[in-house]
Amino acid sequence: MKAMVMQAFGGPEVLQMEDVPVPEIGAGELLVEVKAAGINPIDYVARSVGGPLRDSLEKSLPAILGWDIAGTVSKSNSDLFQIGDKVFTLSRFPQITGAYAEFAAVPADQAVLMPASLSFEEAAAVPLAALTAWQSLVETADIQAGQRVLIHAAAGGVGHFAVQIAKYKGAYVIATASAHNAEFLESLGVDEVIDYTAQDVGAEVSDIDIVLHALLPDLRESASWPCLKPGGLLLSLLGPVPAEEAAKYNARAAQIGVRPDAAQLAEIGKLIEDGVVKITLDCTYSLEQVGEAHTQLAGRHTRGKIVVTIPE
Is the pLDDT of residue 312 over 90? Predict the structure, then answer.
């Protein structure tokens, strides 16, 4: 099968098209013919420097990256799915999965039947980003109707799912984004959009119950902590928050590390099927263009998600 293989850490050029064996599947696994793969920030971080996956990647090189998969079951060693089923999944994260390939071995208990209304490209855009938003706001923060929520980088992959989940739960949502994304975010239900390029977020926003901090850690002090009410919760997507830092602001903090969860993904899929949550695709790339997809996403100006398609 064809796959984009990471030869070493480095720039997009380390991703090379190769012929590799189709993976074998064990008990409880599916062989999925990959139709589309989602691209997430962890993909280009893993490729360039490894990030939190450095140790496992060093032992696995050459490796096939990618964790968001949408495709068709080609073989099944599980009673959960049959050959021909269309599934989507966040597979094995943070272990190596191999989504940038024509076939991938997927744990059956991490896969979910695709919503019938979705294309493979749309389905591949969902798992990691939407589960990150869900596990942040619903599972960790236990978001409640009427709470005030601040979501940074709201037009991005995690952000555009987070604002919709927060609105579904009845929260008042304030989002940070550049001015050209304001209309887009308002169409998703955001109550207020703060243009971070022209406004001082820390000075403009206050009395917040929950902040979803999808920014660099050094921006917490200016863009997140001043916004929280006493006892409020900061959800950090980029690393741990020292306890003394949260205490300084009389607030709480939690680090979010996404994990596969089929039940949660199925619930998100139902919201998508019901029209409560919408998927925004910025653009799609072919499998051999995955390096270009990494470059675009690393520019941090993507609206919604980027996916890679795998042709027949």
Answer: no
* 191-215 average pLDDT score: 94
- Does 122 lie in the same domain as 38? yes
Q: Position of tokens 């398609």?
A: 309
Residues 6+ apart with CB under 8 A from 278: 164, 188, 272
CATH number of residue 41's parent domain? 3.90.180.10
Q: What is the pLDDT of residues 225-280, one digit of tens each?
A: 999 999 999 999 998 999 999 999 999 999 999 999 999 999 999 999 999 999 99
Mean pLDDT throughout 99-111? 98
In this prediction the pTM is 0.96
CA-closest candidate to residue 191, choices 141, 148, 229: 148
Which helix (H) or strand (E) segment holds residue 264: the answer is helix 262-273
Handedness of CA 226, 152, 127, 46 (dihedral sign): negative
Instruction: Check whether residue 105 and residue 194 sit in a common domain.
Output: no
Domain count, the chain: 2
| Containing structural domain, residue 302 | 2-126+279-309
The CA distance from 281 to 291, in Å, is 18
Q: Which two tokens stand for residue 73?
A: 């079951």
